[in-house]
Design goal:
The chain is an alpha+beta fold and 516 residues long. It has eleven helices and 30 strands. The strands form five sheets. Strands 13, 14, 15, 16, 17, 23, 25, 27, 28, 29 and 30 form an eleven-stranded mixed sheet that branches. It is globular. The mean pLDDT is 86.
Length: 516
């Protein structure tokens, strides 16, 4: 999509965890870089050390020699100045613009040559259907022209271009022909996806396709079957769920949806727990009701060995919390690759950890470090199965009957563990209302009321004092559930429940599993 990149780095913080991923993609594409070290006026600025860290990062990412010969500019964005001097200064941003003109090459190609337009992103319009956002590498395309789409499987699909747009800032403007090197939006290309080439119908010349990272996490999406289903949502049927997932696939190409054994369940595969959580939250805000199961990793067999995805995790944490981070990641089969103390109170640690070890990690570390941790992970290939990783060592407190929770009942239950609901909440049998302190599930009565009699008590009633309950958000709820549990998601509520609601049925099922 671009002919060069500009790497913007803070003069004090240096390269952040997410910098590694975007820079690695730019270097893989052999793009010439320009390094800009910003906020040079900060009291704790350390430009020379930051520049050395940038060189280390380039070398660690196997940058070519010509990519290491990048121009470096020192800027103060607040004042609008740029300079090639490490001490800063400068009067305006002219040195930056001069560096762009000198370093970034002009678009290569021939406007009169064979058409080559590579699709790099997708959008969707209710009026025009799927839109392909693409870069013109060669030739010129006109509105109404007959072209072919070079598919990823090698086949050619003929189509007609109905509408063309160019970008002016964030706005789209109608055009009738493309310009070499321009980024355009193309309508009238149903079924097109990222990595495919729009090329000449008579002289097709497809470009090398863009490789999309494989999904690493899978979750089961199913219709809401709880006793409270349909109370809060607008879209509650399997048809609604199927149509919404199909619409998501039009623009989210890193997502995959597979049919399961039943018509009301779908297996959704994505690049990580966060991506799937974002999709669920979007559906929830649009009025959908659904249930999701525990995340599981996507494994594969290579040369007869069971392989699992592994991630390169970078965390930036205050010195006081290094111990708790190492403890949490040590139990998740992680390997420490690098540790660096910046000297201003924070430590950056790099790990190689199985993808399943990241499930539930973010919220746990945010709690343990009091919200001060910065963490970022990226896919780092596959490794042999690392063995079992402990997930949840505690059981659940499960409502054994329907009703409204009472303070009196919860007061007696809070010693059993941590509660997820407060008084006055509608419950149903099989709904999880808290975390048991022990490792087994416990069915409890959370709707019990105090019996009133006309007998005078010898002592005054004890005041009921409830410990504040833990109100789980979507990510925390998904991370908490076990294999036999669901998260029930509606526009207004998040509930945890057992897959089998009736207590006697759960016991029969567990006994049958043990006997089998």
């Amino acid at each position: 999509m671009v002919d060069g990149v500009m790497l913007l780095v803070d003069a004090s913080e240096g390269p952040l965890p997410q910098t590694r991923y975007v820079l690695s993609k730019a270097l893989e594409a052999k793009l010439p870089p320009i390094v800009v070290i910003n906020k040079i006026d900060r009291p704790d600025a350390r430009p020379q050390e930051v520049l050395n860290e940038i060189y280390d990062l380039f070398i660690d990412l196997d940058a070519k020699e010509d990519q290491l010969d990048f121009p470096v500019l020192y800027t103060n964005a607040k004042q609008g100045t740029a300079s090639t001097d490490i001490a800063g200064g400068g009067e305006n941003l002219r040195p930056l613009f001069d560096a762009i003109l000198k370093t970034i090459p002009l678009p290569q190609g021939d406007p009169a040559g064979p058409l080559q337009i590579l699709v790099a992103n997708l959008d969707y319009s209710d009026f025009l259907g799927r839109l392909a956002i693409a870069r013109v590498f060669n030739g010129t395309m006109y509105t109404g022209e007959d072209v072919v789409i070079a598919k990823l499987d090698g086949s050619m699909h003929k189509t007609k271009i109905t509408k063309l747009f160019s970008f002016s800032g964030l706005k789209r403007t109608d055009i009738t022909e493309t310009v070499l090197g321009d980024i355009v939006a193309v309508a009238g290309v149903e079924g097109i996806t990222i990595g495919e080439t729009i090329t000449d119908a008579l002289n097709p010349a497809p470009l090398p396709p863009i490789v999309i990272d494989e999904p690493t996490i899978a979750m089961t999406f199913t219709v809401n079957t709880s006793p409270f289903a349909g109370r809060e949502g607008t879209y509650v049927t399997s048809r609604n769920l199927r149509e919404r997932l199909a619409k998501e696939l039009l623009t989210n190409v890193s997502l995959r949806v597979e049919e399961m054994g039943t018509t009301d369940s779908f297996k959704v595969l994505g690049r990580g727990e966060l991506q799937l959580s974002i999709t669920i939250e979007m559906m929830r805000r649009e009025g959908y009701e659904l249930m999701v199961g525990k995340p599981e990793i996507v494994t594969k067999r290579i040369d007869g060995k069971l392989m699992e995805p592994v991630e390169h995790l970078t965390v930036d944490v205050p010195e006081a919390f290094v111990g708790v981070v190492m403890e949490q990641l040590g139990s998740r089969k992680s390997e420490v690759l690098n540790m660096h103390n910046h000297g201003y109170g924070r430590v950056r640690i790099e790990f190689r950890v199985p993808s399943r070890g990241l499930i539930g990690l973010r919220s746990q570390l945010l709690t343990d470090t009091r919200g001060t941790i910065v963490m970022n992970s990226l896919f780092d290939g596959y490794t042999e199965w690392q063995g079992e990783i402990p997930h949840r060592l505690t059981g659940a407190l499960i409502a054994d009957r329907s009703g409204v929770s009472t303070a009196y009942a919860l007061w007696g239950l809070q010693e059993r563990g941590e509660l997820f609901v407060g008084p006055g909440v509608e419950l149903y049998e099989g709904m999880i209302i808290g975390e048991n302190a022990k490792d087994d599930d416990l069915d409890v009565n959370a709707v019990r009321e105090k019996k009133l009699t006309n007998m005078r008590a010898s002592t005054a009633d004890e005041a009921i004092r409830l410990v504040p309950f833990r109100n789980l958000n979507l990510e925390q709820a998904i991370e908490f559930i076990a294999d036999d549990e669901f998260v029930e998601i509606t526009p207004k509520s998040l509930r945890l429940r057992k897959k089998v609601l009736q207590s006697n049925q759960r016991k029969k099922k567990s006994m049958a599993t043990v006997e089998g």
